Amino acid sequence: MAVSPTVEGGRFTVPDASESNTLGDYLRARRGLVDPADAGLPATGGTRRVPGLRREEVAMLAGVSANYYLRLEQGRDRHPSVQILESLARVLQLDDAATDYLLELATPRPARRRRRPRPETVPASIRQLVQVESLPAFVEGRYYDVLVANDLARALEPNLRPGLNRLTSMFLDPANRVLYPDWDEITVQLVANFRSAVGSDTSNPRFVELVGELSISSERFRYLWGRHDVRAGDGMPMRIHHPQVGDLTLSRNKLAVSGTERQFLVVYHAEPGTSSAEKLALLTSLATPAAEPDRQLGSVLEQAAIGPLTSDSSRPLNVSAINRQAPTARRAGPSVREAQRS
Predict the structure, then answer these.
(1) In 10 A of CB 184, how many CB atoms?
(2) In degrees rounded to 5, what are phi and psi of residue 31?
(3) Residue ranges making up the domain that contains 298
(4) Which CATH number is 71's domain given?
(5) Burial of 116 by CB count in 10 Å (0-12 exposed, 13-18 middle, 19+ buried)?
(6) Is 137 helix (H, G, I), strand (E, B) or coil?
(7) What is the tens place of the pLDDT at every residue in 230-282?
(8) CB 66 within 8 A of CB 55
(9) Which residues have a Cβ under 8 Å from the Cβ of 206 and sit 6 or more positions away?
(10) Does the residue 280 lie in any domain?
(11) pLDDT digits over 323-340, tens only?
């Protein structure tokens, strides 16, 4: 049986870790995704009753007995050797991230007293950094809850605000299907990243609540969670169809917040010199308070110099560049019409 949330007394619950069979569930899900032809098996010509590889085929290709592999899937043997796990990873065509996840599932975990979950607190210095950051930035917790976000992040995506969760917003808010043209691929990546981040630690009440809610409310999430995909990283370019500035492509990078339990600072950025960079600058101007233009004009003055402006600089200012750029700074970026034409 999969580790699936159930509803008891109006609350989501999952089986205790000692009762669940995460290793067997993972092996079963992954063999169902392997094409027998890709595994080097000859076509039999008959109709296969189940998708992917049969248990005995996995056992044969991995060099273990069919009975032993059956015990693994049924949870009767939960701690196979690393050599056997690596053989199974090869047969199941797992990449490095998925192989690491498989090894983690089979690693004995010391019994720990279940503690009451504590609220996730973002360090004060990181809160300040997010607010002064000139790019869309936010901090997410271990279970993808948005803990802190700046104005530009909220201008980019309204759901990036404290108190909301990236997973529930992506799957349950229909507006995100319009905001993200590649919604299907983004959801695949998001769920695979989430499973990789959580690993085998599935007893936390926040995890139980989140996966339970999404499994009941979203057919798409339920399907993706059942695939057991695992991917590390979250930095692929992302296309956004923004209602104010039009289409833009941004990269997203995560930086671990030291001194916390898996909090990440997430920053969006565009490739310099592209139309996406221009549109992001426009969005910045739209989300910037009225007091910002003077600071932006100072940036224009610095950029207009031929070389950096230092106290002993003898390089002349490019006055024509200042004259060209100052009006832009005063109105805090290109016009909506200009950005959408690019």
Answers:
(1) 11
(2) -70, -25
(3) 288-341
(4) 1.10.260.40
(5) exposed
(6) strand
(7) 987 666 789 999 999 999 999 999 999 999 988 999 999 999 999 999 999 99
(8) yes
(9) 117, 143, 145
(10) no
(11) 444 444 444 445 555 555
